[in-house]
Every structure is written in C-alpha cells, then in structure tokens.
Amino acid sequence: MQFIQLVISGLAQGCIYGLIALGFVLIYKATETVNFAQGELLMIGAFAGLFASTVLGLPYWLALVAAMIATAIVGFGLERVVLRPILGQSAVSIVMVTIGIGYMSRGLITMLPVVGTDTHTLPVPFRGEVFRVGGLVISAEHIVIIVTTIVLCALLAALFRYTKVGVAMQAMSQNQLAAYYMGIPVKRLSSLVWAIAAAVAAIAGILLAPLTFIHANMGLIGIKAFPAAVIGGFTSLPGAIVGGLIIGVVEQLAGFYLIEGFKDAAPFIVVLAMLIFKPNGLFGERLAKKV
Amino acid sequence: MSEPMPNEPILTLANVEAAYGAVKAIRGVSLKVPKGAIVTVLGANGAGKTTILKTISGILDPQKGSIAFKGEAIERRDPADIVRRGISQAPEGREVFPLLSVRNNLMMGAYTRSDRDQVARDIELVESYFPILKERADQDAGLLSGGQQQMLSISRALMANPDLLLLDEPSLGLSPKLTQEIFAIVKRINRERGVTILLVEQNAALALATADIGYILELGRIVMEGPAAELAEKDDVKEFYLGQKDVGVRGQRRWKKKKMWR
Lengths: 291, 262
Prior knowledge:
The complex is a heterodimer of chains A (291) and B (262). With 291 residues, chain A is mainly alpha-helical.
C-alpha cells in the first residue's frame, strides 16, 4: 500500500517533469536548440498565474489560462527578439544565450518590489482536500496535476496530428529545407512552437505551485526535467512524458527506500544508466536517408 | 512537335550570380523559360545547376542579377512568397518528410493553398499519375523506395498548383526504366496541365529528348543554348554529354581533343 502511495505521488511529480521535458523536446525538435530557460518559463508562468489570481482576482482556472497566454507571449517574443537574430551561430552560443535568459529572468523577477526573494502561495480551490480510495490517500493536488497533464497531452497530440499547422510543425522538424521549399513559414512556426512550449511550462508552473510554492528559484526544477527529456530520447513528445513519469517515480521511491541524499541524485543515475545501455533513449528516432 | 519558342517567357534570369560563402557557384547566368515549354539545364556535377534552382526558389539569395516571374521581380523574396506566386520545386535528393504519411507529404505541398476542394481534387489527380501513392497513402514516406520517393517529391511539388515546376535531377539514383517512366509523366503533366517545366539533369540524352529548349551550363556559366533537338545534334554535346564517339578522319578516336566553347 505504501508502495502504491509513493508511486502515485511520484507520477504526479513526474507529470510536472514531463511537462517541462515536453517544452525541451518541442523546442529542440522545431529549432534544434536546447532551451535551458525552460524552467524559468515555468517560473514566469507561475508568477503570471499568481498575479492573475491575487491582483486581478481571477478564479483559478481563468488564472491558469491567463498565465498560459502571458507566458506564451513571452516565449514567442524570446524567439523573435533574442533567438532568431543568432540563428545559424554555433549550438554552444545559442545554448549559452538560453542559459543567460534563465539567469536574467530570475534576477529580474527578484527585482520586482512586491516579489523579491519571498515565497508566495497561489490560492487554489482544492487546497488540502484528499480522496480516500481503499487504503490510499490521494491529495486533490495530485489528481489535478495528473488529469490536467492527460488533457493537455491529448490536446497537443490532436494539434500535431490533425491540424495543418501541427503537421507543418512536424514537417519542418523532420526536414527544414523541404519545409522552406513547400512554402511553410518556418520562422513564424518556430516562434509559435516557442509560444506553445512556454504555455506548457506555465501550466507546469501553476500545477507545481501548490507543492513547492512560488519563488524566483522554482525554475531550477528544469534541471531535473532535463534527464526526463533525455530518457525519452529528446526527440519524442510521448517520450518526454514517459521520461518524466519515470524520473518522478524513481525519485519518490529513492527518497523513501534509500538513504538520505539519493532522492536528488536518482534521476541522474537513471540517465547515466540510460545513456550507457540505450543511448537513443526510449523513443529516440534514428533515420537513415535513402540515396 | 510544335515549337513553343515564340511564347513570351514566364521566367527570365538576367546575369544572376550566386555564391555559397566565398565560393561562386553561378557566374552571371541568363536564361529564359517560355510559357508552357519544358526547358532543361544540363551540366556536370558542380556546374551550378542546383544553385540556379535554389536561387529561383528563394532558398539562396543572388548577389547580382535579376529574376522575373510573370513580369515581376522575385529575387530575394521569401520562399513561401515564391511558392504562392506559382513556382514550386521537387528538390535534389527528393527531400520528403520521412515520418509523415505519404498523404500528409502531399498536403504539405499544398500548404500555401486554402481551397480545400481543389486540393482534394489535385490529390486525386497526382494519385492518378502515380497510383502507388494512393496505395501507400497512409505509410510513412521514409519507408518508400527511392523511385517512389521521387514520385512523391514531384507530386508534392504539383500540389502547390504551380505555373512553373522546377525539377532537380529527377533521375538521381533511379533505374533507367523508372527514369523513363517518370520523364514520360513529366511530359504528360506539361502537355495536359500546361505547367511550364524547368528541368535540371545529368542524364542529357533523356533530358534533351523530353525538353523543348536546352541550356548547357559549365562552371557556373551558360555555354550553349538552343532548341533541344538541335543541341542533341551538335558534335560537342554528342561527345561530352551524350557519350557518342567522335570518329576522326583516320577512323580513330581523338582522345586528346579539348573542349573549347569560348
């Protein structure tokens, strides 16, 4: 029973990792850039939600939507203003820029007088509620996280499979040159992918808020979501979620059954093992071009 | 065969120069593509054939010169804008979207169009040209054979409903029989739909047999041009592009003959 309990809270935590990893993978697939500011987008999203619900007085779900939109605009703008001008530079420079964006946004947020380095609480309607199923105690927060993640993944899957823009995003990630030849607006779609990744991060931030509170450094969770993306293969959207779930569960179990300190190291041990035994990840794509 | 020479040009390149970094790939290319014709550009590896097509499609910006399509300048335009104006390309090496289904590849060819009904009719049309694409509609394009991918690449370009279709080495890596089939359909597309075609090829014999007008490109310059049938009869072309032996007075092949056109 204890084990199942741990797995459930691990899955909930894993959903958060998975959503952040989803952002890594989305941006990587579309633009071949690893965005190390993904965690900071989560933090910005959480603060946007906090602002929407405490200052604007919006109810929880509306605040979630408002935060998504606000963070999407931030993501769109980052691609357009900061990343597009350095397109074509070496991968290292681009990665450094995203790391820089992360540091700057952390710094800027603490400079806001009302925010500072304090921890803030996002008002949620279901705080503290629990469900008892059999001998299990499941908190409402965990259920909200899991259900929201499932809904979001379904929406994203539908977007990529059934809409013209979604299929075009897949197309440009598979063969960018051919996408240009087809008249697909590759640059505009890159901005759009950044916006989607930022919106997903905002959702993750708001889902995470009841568990860790909102503070300037909450984005550092991105470092743990990175292994999730690697485990999934870094090119697979379902892989990112599965990787996140694995990391979440492993972390919970390691925290409980192993000695102190293993909890934070566990995700990276899993990643090392994965890189040794299956370097392409669980769902990694490998393609050979026909000549 | 009717001579489409007198038709006004749908595409005109004037002194176009383009380079990859410091390497000049084409050095002042001028050519005219008459409306409704099949025009071929022949040349060896590295002559700059692909560069010409890339420059027309807007993938590469020319450093000098002008490109006019239907009387309007299109150089340095966005590739998407050029597709919307009516130029689409089946690029060298096919470049299909490997993990998209065959049907979705075709849909991506029609990305710039919003007339759904007409797009659906055009899918039927290209599938009538290449029935295999209908059979494999739901399969990933990466699983097709090279020849099937070439058929898909041409069909995908047709899905943009172009007035001018650019074909970059459709024979690359295909069996002679398959190449013949594809060229026959290219000709059919030209005659039935009135699509103007600019064809870049290494297979000179087949290209000259298919085209109305030919240009010969060497080291980034046009060195010869004329009706395809006339070009095929020229001695130099015969020897260097069609591989026919030039038998000298003494009945021996002149091995040391230098090619000199300028």
